[in-house]
Amino acid sequence: MTLNSQQKKTVLASFLGWTLDAFDFFLLTFLLTDIASEFQTDVPAVSKALFLTLATRFIGAFFFGMLADKYGRKPILMLNIVSYSVIGALAAFSPNLGIFLALRALFGIAMGGEWGLGSSLAMESIPPSARGMVSGILQCGYPAGYLLAAVVYGLLYQQTIGGYTIGWRAMFLLSFVPALIVLFIRSHVPESPAFVEAQKTARPGLLETLQKHWGVALYAVVLMMFFNFFSHGTQDLYPTFLKKQHGFDPHTVSWITIVANIGAIVGGLAFGALSEKIGRVNAITLACLIALPSIPLWAYSTTPFMLAIGAFIMQVAVQGAWGVIPVHLNELSPGAVRATLPGFIYQAGNLAASYGGPYQAGIAESAGGSYGYALALFAGVVAVCIIVVIRFSPERRGQVMTVLS
């Protein structure tokens, strides 16, 4: 893969935008029990914040995507990053659970725009032969954000600095950090060449384009519903599983989660690159097949070491499958709506899968607090569903990307 300096900066900016977006989201997964304690409620009630964040992301994907298809990928990406940074930090000042849930819903809108903007900017700026690897790199931003959240949680949470003990509210103030990426994007990242070229010619509108491609769009939403069950169903409640079911301390929870996300990064890079050789559909299928035999080790081990090995393998599989998605959705999407459609499809799938967190928590509590059972059930069923559904997917590996086709 050979990229010039500007292309590398574009990929870096898109990667960092998604990494810190995910960092803001996954901070919450480490803090569910503590927020529940302060607001005098239970974990399923607080986990509705996960549902609301996922459920509102499609609004942001549509809104920010439409703006980017009209005004350009670069300026709207900057606006989007500032939006999710500020709203994420405001959660630190929530006086009650209701306000906290409302802010996380707004955060979901802001979070929903980043993936489509960053992936379209990157995919339109690089040569076709580099797309598989770059797809894996971009999607690795998600586990990298989770890993960063785990590191920060392990290093800072409940630590005393200058007489002040860092609690969950202080952790959310770290959401201001992503806004710094905007300075880098403004100075070093060019606009998408495909978007710049398209300004010379009239383009079809969103509705006209969707009328021509509604079948692919509908299929992709169903596919992304299962993909979002796959990722969030294996990630969001895993720290709670480690804390509540196994009674591990924050340090142990942190390092197991770090190991899992190292596996996720390995999987994303490996399967993204592999998809250039064996195809997008085959790479996703193989990754899901790897997930199935890892379930007993991942959900039913009893020691931190064995749970970490299981988590590593599971996330190699989950994020290996996900590592192909940025390039696959961008290749399937018509160029005139490439900033809108892939992100909207992704987040519409998120909406369909958004109640997975509270539903899993409810299953676990009804089974006597067996979060391992709920996690295993979700992972197994969804992996099989993805294998079946992905076999019907069209594939347009290596096609030339413009904003006019």
TrEMBL record:
Chief localization: membrane
GO molecular-function term, one example from the UniProt record: carboxylic acid transmembrane transporter activity
Cellular component annotations (GO), alphabetically ordered: plasma membrane
Keyword Chloroplast in record: no
Species this chain originates from: Rhizobium loti (Mesorhizobium loti)
Compartments, as annotated in UniProt: Membrane
UniProt protein name: SHS family lactate transporter-like MFS transporter
Keywords assigned: Membrane, Transmembrane, Transmembrane helix
Segments forming domain Major facilitator superfamily (MFS) profile: 10-397
Keyword Cell division tagged: no
